[in-house]
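User: My advisor, Dr. K., asked me to get a structural model of this assembly before our group meeting. I'm new to this, so sorry if the format is off. These are the inputs:
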Amino acid sequence: MYPQIFSAAKDVDRAFLIILGFSVFILVVVTIAMLWFLWRYNVKRSPVAADIRGNFWAEVIWTVLPTIIVLGLFWTGWSSFKAMRTIPDGAMEVLVEGRMWSWKFTYANGKTSQELYAPVDTPLRLKLSSRDVIHSFYVPAMRVKWDLVPGMDTEVWIQSDTVGEYDIFCAEYCGLKHADMITLLKVLPAEDFQAWLDGSAETEGDEILRGLALMEEYGCFDCHTMDGTDDVAPPLNGIAGKERLIILPDGAKRTIKADSHYIKTSIMDPGAELVDGWDDEMPPYEGDLSDEDANVIVNYLLGKDESGKPFKALEHPGLHFAKVEGCLKCHTTDGTTTGRAPSFKGLYGSTITVRKDNKEKMLTADEEYIRQSIKHSTKWVAEGYVDSMPPYDDLNEETIEGLISFIKSLGGKD
Ligand code: CUA
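Assistant: The format is fine. Below is the predicted structure of the whole assembly, which you can bring to the meeting.
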């Protein structure tokens, strides 16, 4: 049996064991009685059947005893169910979204994750919602299983008294990759959880996301791209060590290598070392952005974490959205196909045959096509695929732009 790490789970286990115990007890009693009757009332042993006309006490016993047993079993089940359904006041709220075929968890400060993080010894109120079909949130270690029904608000609560990692499954068949709807509940010590929630955990993935989040927050991507294309400012991907011809305020030109000093100066006081060919339009972030945050951005752009260790690869900002929104469960980024959806690689600009009301239509996968396919996924379904993607009509513009730019960065006709 799974470890008991949740107080309400203990009640569930007790109810389970009591019901199982009674079932076994009754099985044994009935079997023994049956064998005894077979032996005792065999035709050789009792050739003439007794003619019994009712027995008051036998009737009382077989009416009252089963009633008491059944009510007792009901009570043990009901009391454990009540413990699981009574959510303590002040429980920490986390939104849980299920969709084909992944999970998304959103915390009070807006942070999202694909695995559920929880502080130890703290009750969590999980508000369940589904984007498409019925899923079921199942944490065996918590003895919790509850459906996520589209258009209906459901909730459960959990609490762990032990730090560790526990499985989360989808327990309602929801289509082809139902078995893929697996993730983890990560129970952390309270300080570690807070550090994770504040985004200052020292892990590589978090460092990347923090740099990215800061750049989004400060609007860097309004002017800079991460896919090598020029916007109103130079692209920033792969900037580390690149040679830059810069103009100093006195008009002198100099070639330098983009290092941490250069990038930080470019953020804090862009006019001081302006790249040749670009106007001095960027506002200085000196005083607006803290020194610490500026260093996080610099490290992100250099592809290094705080200790100077390189990231495996600098992520495109849109890749983060694609992961968080679950796109990559069905769409690949390497040109292969999962059979459920077209690959993102080479998608942009390609010609796609779509089907609508049994009519075929050829469309070019331009920005508008991708935008419509994300927001209103059922509008056009690409030939050869079934209509299985949920509509993402509630994504904010930034996320959609990020996804489009990510898909564009994976190549295609332009
Ligand atoms: Cu979601 Cu099965």
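One thing worth pointing out at the meeting: Residues 98, 101, 135, 170, 172-174, 178, 181 surround dinuclear copper ion (CB under 6 Å).

User: Perfect, thanks a lot.
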